[in-house]
């Protein structure tokens, strides 16, 4: 297939320039496979940064979108809607008990903003504690909780009363939480920060300290949710009971959507204090309902657990001196190298495997949970070859 249009030149000419681009144009996807404009296939271990948990263009999600697009695309939240009502019911039935008040928005960073607002409004306090190496998005409120200086520096001053504590250091958190703390905002496994799992002691300790001192525990599962780590929610591995659970990425099979689920300690947002024009639109709600149904019927969280365990073992057995550590949970895996990851990501792409970085030295694998065992074996073979 020969194309006459130079898509890369068009994007380069007109796009803002904020993205470091790879010279690859993707035009089609199915399951864990993507195709470029020349028809070359790639095994997708990026899933749009962890968006495509049910795979690209899952037929059930496609059908739901097609049907809803022909029925009703937009409907403001001041009116009731059938798809929204059913999604709220079906999603809350899936969430850890007590998290049954939902606010719908359109992205992860918006969901984080909503969670911060819930914390400040319901506690009457202002301080938000987040973790070093944490990532929570790029709008100014969420960015104030994000750690990476490269993302923050050009935009100072950020929102006041945010502070960062070392991740997995419960004593530092104990010192930092005071009577002024509205909330502690944490990932269960830090994704962008290098695929770093939180310890039981730290996360459960954070929950205990929040309860003792009247702060809310906001758990950001934008990347770890919807089966990614081998359970529906990563907080289930530790029996965590967040006061607010933050969701996005895979929630609607690739259609933009975010959500927060608020538990009994979270209180509610008063009428008119928050909102979103696109939030809870019927198209995204229908896509999310289909996505939940696919995760359930195809037992994708269980698949992520078994495929991830196999992959982790294979990767830990790779005889490469370049690997410092392999870590992760389910199909969220980080391979920390002793050198920069970028050349290896490029080498993997040349062998037909798309992976992600997570910081300068970590190769991150976030494949669709539907990835086949043949594809996983091919990924291991490609990594073995490039990391020799
Ligand atoms: C991706 C991500 C976000 C931000 O989501 P966007 O949809 O890009 O705004 C927030 N938190 C975590 C943990 C993420 O991985």
Task: Break the fold down into its secondary structure elements and pairings.
Layout: H1 7-14, E1 26-30, E2 33-36, E3 41-44, H2 47-50, H3 59-69, H4 82-94, E4 101-105, H5 108-123, E5 127-131, H6 140-145, H7 149-152, E6 162-165, H8 170-176, E7 181-187, E8 189-190, E9 196-197, H9 200-213, E10 216-220, E11 244-247, E12 258-262, H10 282-297, H11 300-316, E13 323-329, E14 332-337, H12 342-350, E15 353-354, E16 356-357, E17 362-365, H13 373-386
Parallel strand pairs: 3-15, 5-6, 5-7, 7-10, 10-11
Antiparallel strand pairs: 1-2, 2-3, 4-12, 8-9, 11-12, 13-14, 14-17, 16-17
This protein binds pyridoxal-5'-phosphate (PLP).
Residues 107-109, 112, 135-137, 187, 191-192, 220, 222-223, 248-249 line the site of pyridoxal-5'-phosphate (PLP).
User: Count of helical segments?
Assistant: 13
| Amount of beta strand | 15-25%
Show unreliable segments.
none
Give the N-terminus to C-terminus distance in angstroms. Answer: 34 Å
Instruction: Please write the CATH class name of the largest domain.
Output: Alpha Beta
Please indicate the count of domains: 2
Q: In CATH terms, what is the fold-level topology of the largest domain?
A: Aspartate Aminotransferase, domain 2
Given helix and strand content, the structural type is alpha/beta
Would you identify the CATH H-level superfamily of the largest domain? Answer: Type I PLP-dependent aspartate aminotransferase-like (Major domain)
Q: How many strands appear in the DSSP assignment?
A: 17
Per CATH, which architecture of the largest domain? 3-Layer(aba) Sandwich
Largest sheet: 7 strands, mixed
Radius of gyration: 21 Å
Average pLDDT confidence is 97
Order of helices and strands: HEEEHHHEHEHHEHEEEHEEEHHEEHEEEH
- State the helical fraction: 25-40%
């Amino acid at each position: 297939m020969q194309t006459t249009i130079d898509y890369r030149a068009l994007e380069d000419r007109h796009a803002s320039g904020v993205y470091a681009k790879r010279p690859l144009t993707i035009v089609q996807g199915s399951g864990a496979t993507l195709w470029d404009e020349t028809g070359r296939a790639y095994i997708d271990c990026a899933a749009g940064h962890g968006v495509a948990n049910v795979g690209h263009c899952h037929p059930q999600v496609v059908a739901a979108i097609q049907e809803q697009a022909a029925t009703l695309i937009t409907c403001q939240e001041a009116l009731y809607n059938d798809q929204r009502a059913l999604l709220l019911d079906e999603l809350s039935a899936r969430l850890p008990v007590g998290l049954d008040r939902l606010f719908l928005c359109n992205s992860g960073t918006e969901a984080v903003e909503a969670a911060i607002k819930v914390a400040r409004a319901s506690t009457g306090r202002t301080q938000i504690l987040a973790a070093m190496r944490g990532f929570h998005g790029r709008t100014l409120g969420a960015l104030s909780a994000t750690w990476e200086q490269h993302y923050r520096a050009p935009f100072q001053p950020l929102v006041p009363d945010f502070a960062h504590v070392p991740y997995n250091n419960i004593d530092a958190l104990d010192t930092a939480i005071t009577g002024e703390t509205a909330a502690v905002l944490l990932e269960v496994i830090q994704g962008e920060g290098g695929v770093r799992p939180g310890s039981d002691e730290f996360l459960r300790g954070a929950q205990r300290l929040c309860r003792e001192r009247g702060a809310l525990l906001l758990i950001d599962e934008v990347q770890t949710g919807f089966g990614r780590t081998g359970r529906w929610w990563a907080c289930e591995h530790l029996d965590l009971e967040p006061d607010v659970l933050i969701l996005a990425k895979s929630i609607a099979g690739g259609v933009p959507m975010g959500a927060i689920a608020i538990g009994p300690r979270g209180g509610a947002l008063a009428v008119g204090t928050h909102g979103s024009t696109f939030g809870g639109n019927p198209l995204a709600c229908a896509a999310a309902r289909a996505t939940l149904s696919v995760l359930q019927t195809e037992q994708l969280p269980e698949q992520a657990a078994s495929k991830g365990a196999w992959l982790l073992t294979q990767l830990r057995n790779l005889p490469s001196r370049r690997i410092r550590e392999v870590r992760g949970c389910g199909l969220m895996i980080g391979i920390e190298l002793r050198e920069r990851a970028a050349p290896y990501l490029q080498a993997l792409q040349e062998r037909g495997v798309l992976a992600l970085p997570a910081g300068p030295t970590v190769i991150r694998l976030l494949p669709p949970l539907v990835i086949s065992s043949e594809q996983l074996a091919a990924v291991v073979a490609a990594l073995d070859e490039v990391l020799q």
